[in-house]
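REQUEST FORM: STRUCTURE PREDICTION
Request ID: SP-0412
Submitted by: Lab K.M.
Chain count: 1
Length (residues): 293
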Amino acid sequence: MGLILKPIDIVDDISQEDFINKYLNPRKPVIIKNMARKWPAYKKWTMEYMKEAVGDVVVPLYDSSKADPAAPINASAAKMKFADYVDLIEREPTDLRIFLFDPIKFAPKLLDDYISPKELMGGFLDKYPNMFFGGKGSVTFLHYDIDMAHIFHTHFNGRKKILLFDYKWKDRLYRIPYATYALEDYDIENPDFEKFPALDGVEGIECYLEHGDTLFMPTGWWHWMKYLDGSFSISLRAWDKSWGVKAHSLWNLTVQRNFDNFMKRRYKTRYMNWKEKKAVERANMALEKGLPR
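STATUS: Completed
RESULT:
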């Protein structure tokens, strides 16, 4: 059977009514082709432009190696001047990535280059856009976002492959306890179903972004991303109206993250081994029960 991957809905433009009824309320992903074509960024945001804006800033870089059991989540592998990093990803493939980077802190003029899609929904965190840069072949591991926000993810200067999974599949994806990411021992693009049988039959969405495409990812959706070219994206985040989702976000950001970091510092590899074992046990149990139904 394998993974059951379906294509994503793609629209050129969309009205607020259709967006809310077809995608926001049912929490269903969609690609909007023309949203960012109205932004100054659509033409302005080249690699050279970004280098001019924030080139001297030293940025943390992340690779695809397995996380250090003792390190807090999102601990970087290296640091580099932003301009040097852009030169690197334009020159050659690399698994080094930049994520959760806020260039507007250093270049406020970038605020004028994009427009939050308030005509579609409210709740945007206008002052906190995140940007993500990756070299050809670099991969963002399978995870869902800790703050449980809705995301409008717009890509620039290349192509990106994305796999998406509804939150309900979390246990079958071998979710690590007290974390928002999956077991790092399998390749979701080419899973070994003998070693990880719970992945067999998991349903998801496969899609590709090109320059100017915007992906709407509803709250809680798991995502895995692969840069097919050296390129970058910006994520505009919006709160869900549900108090349950907001409570989940608060729990993740405070209780869960602080507890997890404490346990990592205290027990290191012993704690990580327990978490990985528990992820496998929960996945096997969900498979045996036929979950999710």
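NOTES: The CA atoms of residues 196 and 248 lie 28 Å apart.
Reviewed by: T.R.
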